[in-house]
Each structure stands twice: as C-alpha cells, then as structure tokens.
Fold Minor tail protein.
Amino acid sequence: MKFLQGTEALQYQNWATMPNILKGEEFKLVYLAPNGRRWDLLGPLAGRQGVQLSTEIHGLHHPSFQHLFTEGAYQEGATYERTNILKRVIDIGIMVGSGTRKLSKYQYQLVESNWWDSWPLGVTGWLGMHSRFGGWRWVQVMQASPVNTTVSKSPIYANNNHTLWSMQIVAPKPYFAKRTLVTTWKAHPQTHALHGYDEETITICNRGNVAVWPKFVYSGPGRAWVQDGVTSRLVPLPLLDANDGYVLVDTDPGERMLTASKDPVDNIFYQWARSSRILDFFLHDIADLGLPVWRRANGIRFNSQIPPRTTANIKVRHDHAGGTVSVLVPQRWSRPV
C-alpha cells in the first residue's frame, strides 16, 4: 500500500485536482450477457474485456413513439387520438480487439468468440448506463437483426487483431429501469379486534420520469383492499383462503392482473357449490374459492397511474389479523441519463 503525503496527498483532497476515475463523472456503458459475462463498452474501463464502442450510438437516448391521428374528409387538420410507445432499436458500432488494449492473435479469437456467445438469439441481456446524475439505469436488449458488416478476409493479418462490427440491438420494453421500490405492511391484531380490519397509508415514490402502474402483493386468508393509484377509490381484491399463498396484483391493464403463488385444485365440492345459487346466496364467496384467483376478479378495474417524480400516499386494508400487503412501484426512465 502506498502512503500519500505532501502535494501528492493534497490532490486527493481537492475535487478539481482529483483523478477523473475517482470523480466518476464519465458515462459508463456496460452489457451483462445472458451467459453471465460482463462487457465494459464505454467509460474508464472500456475495452477491459477486449471489446468497446467504436462509433456513436443511435437510438439509445430517446424512445421511439408514434402519434395516432384521425382525419375526416372535410376536417381541417387532424384529431390527435393517442401515442404508442414502440420498441427501442439501437444501432451501435463495436470494436473487437480494442486499440486501448492490444490483443495477440489467440486473444483476439478468444475475445471474438466470447462476444458473439454473449448474444444468443431471442434471449435478452442487460444494457446499463451510468452517470453521476442518474446512477445506473438498465434496459433488456437482444440482437435485432443479422450482422452484415463487411470485414477483411483475415482480421489477424499483420497482427492487426481487431475488427469493426455494426450491430443493431432491440429493447422490447423501451424504458430504462432501476430496482422497484417495495414497502410491506402487516395488519395489527389489536386494530383488527376493534374494527374487524386494519388499514394503513403507505408513502412511496415514483422517482422516474414515466408514469407507472403500481403493483401489490397480498396474503391470505382474508380479503384486502388497495387504493387505485392516486385516486381515493379503494378496490376490493378477491377473497383468499390459506391455500392460495401470496397473490400479485398488477394494475397495468396490458398485463395479467392476478397471479397466485399457488392456485387451488377445483374439487367436486366447489363445482357443486357454484352450481347452487341458493348455497351461494348464504355462503357468498365460498364457491369462488375453488377457482384460480384470476377467475375471481369479478370486474375489478384500475384506472390511475402514479405520475412521474411524484410521492404517492397509497391506502391499503386487510380484514385478517397478520395479513400483509406490499406496495411495489417500478422506477422507469425514458432516457439512460
């Protein structure tokens, strides 16, 4: 270990003279492959594994979108209907055998083999970008189209040991993301004994610049209620028994709403109970317990998202002592920095 003293030590005490690698102000771009390999493509460690960016990137910074309009025969202009967010297509230039770290002929062939093995067809890896302003933001990507770059007949001729490739990759889910924020609440037995239920208001943030649909996880037995986004409406969720386990509630209308960790087996008693309207009149939800949780939705709908850069106060309720409700808010950005 080197002991710093005098003027050499002073440069580490002043931001202006501190080495750039310690400041962390440079952008970093990293690809985490499905096979577990890491590739530093941009930043202080670029080319560490023998591959780095060779040209500018197209399609990384802003997402693709399409405005939809309707136009009438006698209408002046058009009427805006909605905007569709499309997949993110990114064009990148890759240098295998980087100029910053010279490779031997054998090393070049090893690096190139490892690089293409990191792009299995139809399997997504993670592309992450880091800035001092926004930290790490990640998006899932895979190869979008065949690589048709023209290369020399021998990349290792005269110890050149490098090749430039033009690649096109695609992110089916176009938004960059960070770890989802999660807060869990448990119904208190004393409050349940007084009122027959317990409820709590959970404060949680959407730090991203994209509006998101919150998610919930609740436990059985019993019934839970959750707030519809930033409205004041409480939505009753399906009644659970002890065998249902935990249930994920996704409020996004484009996703499956209810997913249970364990779906009950539909036995002859539940089949008979559903066929008897009189029995259902007296026992209410007991017939539904024989159905998978997603079939007990009974017209449940969510209409409200959490706006970008907003702190939301989400009310949750459970009618069983010890029942839990977790609120999950995804963190998404339209840009990597």
User: Anything to note?
Assistant: The domain at 177-333 is CATH 2.60.120.860 (Jelly Rolls). The longest strand covers residues 176-186. The two ends are 36 Å apart (CA to CA).
